[in-house]
Structures are given as structure tokens and as C-alpha cells.
Task: structure prediction
Amino acid sequence: MKIVTDTNIIFSAILNSNGTIGDLIFNSDNVFEYYSSGYMPYEIDKHWQKLKKISKLTEQQLKESRLKISRKIQFLNEELVPEKIWKRAEETVSDIDIDDTDFVAMAIYLKGSIWTGDKVLYNGLKSKKFKHVYNTAELLKIRDAMIHKRAKR
Result:
């Protein structure tokens, strides 16, 4: 299952790779493939000082956490997404948050799902019948059900 991770999920994983979000990223091999925007590394750089300030990690620990997370996520070049999909994504999020257009466009392009901790985005997409958007608790249930199903075979 292809999962497009949004900014808040990646930031949370960097800040606490041992939490539930980290568990999903590091312990879901053969269940989920993670993707995000090719712009994400720049977004992390842009907010690095804030991440340092709110984390309890040293600079080195934060860098190691970022590297670990980055190895589990494929950063997709947005230019691969056709214009038609961009327009559809933009229409979908125009009254939710235009800044989330890239995540919706990538999910449509990959025929995948979005993983977000952004309640406004989650509720907005759900209200528009966008079926493939999940919060952390839902993704955890899906992962655990798939692992359990495979173990029964």
C-alpha cells in the first residue's frame, strides 16, 4: 500500500522516532511504501531551528533521526505528476488548505493514500468523500490487521 506522508507526520517522526509514528514508519515493511514531496527535505531545512528548539535531542541526534526517517521515505519529484492531476488536487483542497495540494496530487498519481495528523485536512478530505486519507490510529489498525492476516497464512 502506497502512503503519502505529509509534513506534520515527518516532523513528528523526526522529533520522536520511538513513538507510534516512528513505529509505523520503521516496522511496516512489506505493508506500506512511504512517499512524500520532493520538496520535503527543503521544508525540513527551513524549519530545522524550530525542530531543534522543540525537540529534546542534540543536534547530532536530530540529524540521525532525520537520516533514519529519510531512508524509509521516497521523495517524489512533483514534476512527474501530470498537470491534470495537479488541477484535480488543487480543486479538492482549494477550500481546505491549498498548501496540501502536493500531497493530494501525489496520492492520486500513485493511486495511494494520504497519512496526515492535520485534522483540518483529514476532515476536509473526508467531507469531500476522499476515501484514501488516514490518521495515525487508522493506519496503525490497517498495518496490524495486515500483519495479523499474513501471520495466519
Observations:
- The two ends are 19 Å apart (CA to CA).
- The domain at 2-152 is CATH 3.40.50.1010 (Rossmann fold).
- DSSP finds nine helices and five strands in the chain.
